[in-house]
Amino acid sequence: MNQSSHKSKNIPIEALNLSVRSTNALKNHGIDFTNQLEKLTEKEIAQIPNLGKKSKNEILSNHNIYLKTQRDLRFDNIAEALDFLFEKKFFKNKEVIEKRLFHNYTLEQCGQLSGVTRERIRQIESKFINSLKSLITDKHAKELSSFFENHTGINNFFELNKVGPSYNNISKYLIPATNPKNFLNHFFVKENLLKWQKKKNSYYLYASNSDSLDELIHDKELINFILNSSSAKLYDSVKTYSLIKNQESNFDYILEEIQSKLSKRANFASLYAVTQLKKNFTYITTRQVIEFLKENCNKDFSSQIRTLNNILSSSDTTNPVFDVRDINLYMAKGQGNFFFLDKLEIENIDQEEIVNFVLEVIKRKPDKNFNSKEFLDYFKETERLSKNTIEILDRYIIDAILLSVANEHDDLNYLGRSTWSGNENALRKKRTKIYPTVLKILEDNGAPMLLKEIKKEITKVRGHGKNFQLHTTLTSPKLIQISSGLWGLRDRDINVSNEQELEMVNQIQKNFIGGNKILDFHDIKCFKESIGIDEDVSIFQLMKLLQAHIPVGRRRTPGSLIFLLKSSSKNPLNFCIYSPEISDKEANEYIKSRIDDDFFDVRDNEDSIRGPIYIIENKKYFGRQSIMKDYDIENQTIGYRINSDKYPNWKKI
């Protein structure tokens, strides 16, 4: 409090020299000290029993002198101002104001706590903040401005004491606060004194014209600094950056957050790892990438090795920050092995010689597909390349050299597995032919076909690159999976109308709105019966039909995403259709919780089995490897588990 202010002392009522009647009336009313009298309003004083008009005026005269003195109060210290308001002016509303300002209670919650409307709470809050601002001097603003001239921020509420005398003891209000956002915003942010952000279990306060820690972490400048740092270790790069930005005290937080950002997705994480490994290595492996991420980002991608392999071996992997082609990473011999072409130090003249020779050969026979081994054998037999190049050259390096310039030459078309074509845009044309070709094969066959049979037929017209997958999607709606490995035509081989299909989607949406966010085999079975879908249509087929309504981008296309679908690898009938509000982890846990359940369908559960089907007498036995599940056809009951090796007389069907 400054020198011109007055602070009332707590003294006995008798010391006020009031009349005997006034003194006795106050004491009989439970008022023994001046601090009790100061809290009363004029109306409350006038209502004290046994006071005559003269006594009331006498007491009110003393009370008004006190109030006039209080109007001149000004505090230099924020905590003292808060103490005064809670003790003298807002003591009746102290609890609700603290809940609102320091614990983020809503207006509605505060209203229920006090038995008043939310508008009344808003008025009380506004009056309190205005009173606080009028009670304090501007020293707190000057101290804060001076502090930020030499410091980047305040790491927690304890450090507020370092700002200056105005902030002494303010931590007693802020440390116990579960969420003081309303106080901070009203008193500091709106006055442009500072900004704040949550930092784990504490708060970080910083100047209004500065960046928060989170803005610093998500700034491209930090990523670029890491990528261009001489050290491949994330710890070293972030440590140096924190020193440059005067954020040494927040190094641990910055490091942990950037680790989380870099390793959040497999695509981003693997490409980050590759850029750093390139600083020290020419050849790398997927396992090396996994170990690097484990060491630098504290995240283990061992379970996603196949995903990482696909990312690193993709020729069109792009990212706002990384590009595999810019990194010059290419596949080497053996799965999960890669190398950096530009670190092999193959002379430019040799690379040009390889490209020119391949172009010359391809142009002579544009309809033939060439394997890189043919090119390799030629260069090994001739002396067209330098000795150093010949010593390290293999078909993977030839592929890499050709891929690095493929965009510059229309005649260079990579068909996969070291195979090259001279046909202009041959690969793209062949890929677009897959879907109509499969449809024609199925139409000509007149019935569903196994995938391996479709592959045999399509390789007769497609040639190289026969590995492909079939999917029922909105862009290929005429294909439908009839059972595991068996494909047919949507309009011919499954008796479900478009109206019935759309009604199933409608039923799913209704359940989501009603609060049922995860649907399974039994729910789809109920939909089937309520919609009147043909009994011969299996739940497996309906599940595959519904997959067409999931966009290829899944969660990356929220505008068109209605639902997601996940099924068990051991039993396709153990599936769940879930709302985008549900996480993939929750869906996985739901599937795991039902792993021992039985699912019965019109196809005698053939769709649930990943193995052969056996029959003996009136029983069918569905197996996966040597474990069988005994299903009684006549009684429709599931039996015990038995080993098929003990029953050699079973007939396989």
Largest sheet: 5 strands, antiparallel
Low-confidence stretches: 1-8, 65-71, 424-432, 610-653
Strand order of the largest sheet: 18-17-16-15-19
Relative helix content: 40-55%
Strand composition percent: 5-15%
- Rounded average pLDDT: 81
Gap between N and C termini:
95 Å
Beta strand count: 19
Helix/strand layout:
Blueprint: H1 20-28, H2 34-38, H3 42-46, H4 53-71, H5 78-89, H6 94-102, H7 107-114, H8 118-135, H9 139-148, H10 171-174, H11 181-189, E1 195-199, E2 202-206, H12 213-218, H13 220-228, H14 234-244, H15 251-262, H16 266-277, E3 283-285, H17 286-297, H18 305-313, H19 324-327, E4 329-331, E5 337-340, H20 348-364, E6 369-371, H21 372-381, H22 387-392, H23 395-405, E7 413-416, E8 419-421, H24 426-445, E9 449-450, H25 451-462, E10 479-483, E11 486-489, H26 490-493, H27 498-513, E12 518-520, H28 521-531, H29 539-546, E13 564-567, E14 575-578, H30 584-593, E15 613-616, E16 619-624, E17 627-632, E18 637-643, E19 651-652
Antiparallel strand pairs: 1-2, 3-5, 4-5, 6-8, 7-8, 9-11, 10-11, 12-14, 13-14, 15-16, 15-19, 16-17, 17-18
Task: Explain briefly what this protein structure is.
This protein is of the alpha+beta class and 653 residues long.
